[in-house]
Amino acid sequence: MVAWTTFARTSCALAVIAVVTLELGACADGPRPGTQTTVPPVTAVRQPLGLLKPTEPPGDIGPIERFAWQRVVELGEAFAAGDAEGFLAKVSRGFYRGYGTLETSLKALLADSSARAAVVAVRKITEEEGRVSVRAEWTRTITRRDGSVDARHGETEFLFLKSDTSLRLLDYRGDTPFAIDGI
After folding, report:
1. In the chain, N or C terminus with fewer CB closer than 10 Å?
2. Taking Cα atoms as reference points, which of 122, 142, 135 lies closest to residue 80?
């Protein structure tokens, strides 16, 4: 654990130094006529999959909030299991960003993978105006069929309608759930 923390801090520091050096180098001489200077975007250093720990709901939340918490965890479990139908069963057909688009993107992502893992850590749950929202941090990895590994980390606020007794996902804010590109 100490070695990984040291490695992560060193990697982060080196990345920052590299980007600053590129930016300073680009500014020092200024662009030459007829050339284009591009600086690669700074990418955030995210927690590795093994460092994010799943959370348990506190004892003082109501049954609807507890069910919404469980729903988000189940979405992560279905994703990790490669269970597209199980995942989609927890999503409303009226999904604001397009149920068909989500279905196509999810199935394509799962079909291109041979193994998956996901960890969900719920950070906050709120109930307001007929909605229940669950803010969760998640990390997922996918081993693609070619052997490459795609690890991603994000924070998403999952939105459910309280009137929907099955609490199906209606929308989200923040990062795309489990980095399902295309939705």
Report:
1. N
2. 142
- Paired sense of beta strands 149-161 and 131-144, if any: antiparallel
Helix %, strand %, coil % of the chain (to 5): 40, 25, 35
pLDDT digits (tens, 9 = 90+) for 147-156: 999 999 999 9
DSSP bridge partners of 91: 169
Q: What is the pTM of this model?
A: 0.72
End-to-end Cα spacing for the chain: 36
DSSP codes joined into one string, 86-143: HHHTTB-TT-TT-HHHHHHHHHHHHHTEEEEEEEEEEEEEEEETTEEEEEEEEEEEEE
Taking only Cα atoms into account, the Rg of the chain, rounded to an integer number of angstroms, comes to 20
Does the pLDDT of residue 121 top 70, yes or no? yes
Confidence at residue 113, expressed as pLDDT on a 0 to 100 scale? 96
CATH of domain 49-179: 3.10.450.50
Per-residue pLDDT, 40: 33
For the chain, give every residue range classified as CATH 3.10.450.50.
Answer: 49-179
CA 125/CA 157 separation, integer angstroms? 9
For residue 118, which phi and psi values (nearest 5 degrees)?
-150, 140
